[in-house]
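Methods: holo model generation. Sequences were used as deposited, without trimming of termini or removal of tags, and paired with ligand SMILES retrieved from the corresponding compound records. Each pair was processed once, and we did not select among multiple samples. The sequence and magnesium ion SMILES for this entry were:
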Amino acid sequence: MNLLELKDISKIYGNVKALQDINLEVSQGEWLSIMGPSGSGKSTMMNIIGCMDKPSNGSVILDGADISKESARGLTDIRRDKIGLIFQQFHLISYLTALENVMVAQYYHSMPDEKEALEALDRVGLGERAKHLPSQLSGGEQQRVCIARALINYPMLILADEPTGNLDEANESIVLDIFKQMHADGRTIIVVTHDPEVALQAQRTVVLEHGKVARIINNEQDTGR
Amino acid sequence: MKRQTMYLRMITSSLVRRRSRLLVALLAVAIGATILSGLVTIYYDVPRQLGQEFRSYGANLILVPAGDEPSIDRDTAQRAVDLIPKDEVVGIAPYRYETLKINEQPTVVAGTDLEGVQKASPYWFITGEWPTSSKSVLIGQEVADLIRLTPGSSLTLNGTGAEGQAVSANFTVSGIVQTGGTEEAFVFMALADLEAMMGDSGKLNVVECSISADQDDLDKIVKNISNNVEEVSPRLVKRVTESEGTVLTKLQALVYLVTVVVLLLTMICVATTMMAVVAERRKEIGLKKALGASNKSIVIEFLGEGLFFGALGGLLGSGLGFLFAQVVSMNVFTRAISFQPLLIPVTVVVSIAITGLACLLPVRSATDVDPAIVLRGE
Ligand SMILES: Nc1ncnc2c1ncn2[C@@H]1O[C@H](COP(=O)(O)OP(=O)(O)OP(=O)(O)O)[C@@H](O)[C@H]1O
Ligand SMILES: [Mg+2]
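and the model returned the structure below.
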């Protein structure tokens, strides 16, 4: 069953065609990579899938519902309930501790639950650092807090825009291990990356060029997995 | 954990850990609240202060005989005086005037309650001392110059008594009085001394009253006395009561104006600070929205931070304001000010309202932030 379908999606900023006629289906539990040169429209696509922006044309079907006609408020609700976001720059709230940063997501979703948030930090190996402020954490640790936050409300779709872009190799492999775990748990994951190694972990890789899908690579076939 | 708890944790963390620009807003609110509560304290205390101040300029109500009567009976005068609320009376000075001669020089001699005079006319300047025993007198500066008397000299008064008999008595000068007015041509002594010399008692020519009350109260007292004691005609000393009223009105208008201006400035400062805060925290707002925060949540959080500072500033300001008013009062009136407990909640509420109002526009602009900025990496 498809969790996500993009049908003839275009996004136009003034005279910049950031996306043109994108068609894509992502099935439940799939791990998908998106690659492409800078400016090819990867983040634009993530914004549309993540309900943070609307396409200029075409429709987005998420979990059986067309979200391209939703109001800003409706999009907020869908984003809160169904999407988990991970960013290249981590985007933690600087004045809140790691634990509180995770609890913020719970707060906007439903009820803050300290115990559950602590367990989520434990799962990314940061149980001991719960009371630290982001400025007291390394980049890799911050990214893991960001992942714990993205996972806390059990989203059906996890979107990650260059999650390892700012990390060294050691931290990259820690983060990838967490992604593998998420995938094993049956989460649907879409990862934007410049790193072929990272892209290869996914089942399929979509390559964007000039706002269009240039090709789709089936990694399992190619690697013989 | 309750949502409210998390909410409080979020906004207090933001305030405590960011030590942000909002401190500037806090300062603005605290200063605004200080001026507000200080000026309002002064505003309410000034009539009292000024009243007392003006009371040192002498009587503001005098009682004279009604119609063509030459004098008021002492008991009648007392009935009129009793109609003045006790707690408003600063001093009452009854006077009986007689013309007697010193060294063949006709002089007005006033018999009075010397203690009452000291209270009703604190501005009298005495060289020497107020009379403390009978047979001693105060003489006006003019009298002293004319007859060359100094404190300690003795003088002889003679004239015609109540029954037409010739009277004469010796007195000691205890002090010389300067007032800048007609009093300087008089001789003052205890009423009992004058009555003993004249051979009759119970007659007064005028009663001077110094009353701590505003124009309206004074008018009421006048009406009350004229209605109830017909033999007495009460008159306000316009020169004193009117200038007191004018000064008050002008001062209160000034205080009002300054308060409004200060509150406006506070509001502008808070508004610009909040604008800067929102601009500074665009990313955080975008992130919160990306995490699913509704516009309502964003507004509530920013307002929460703003109002928290408003309340804190108000509290701080109401305390500082009292100190400020105290200092002003000590310097201007050399009197302590009375503390108005009600002013604390009023200042806090006004501060909250002002900050709330000032936050409206900046907070609205916070809701316009696009969550997509977090992925664009601006
Ligand atoms: N808000 C916007 N207004 C105008 N143009 C935009 C806007 N957002 C994106 N674009 C343009 O759309 C195109 C695609 O941008 P996008 O951010 O999706 O690229 P990307 O593939 O994520 O690039 P990178 O790898 O550098 O992150 C770019 O040409 C960009 O300038
Ligand atoms: Mg991008």
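Chain B has two domains: 3-53+245-375, 59-236.
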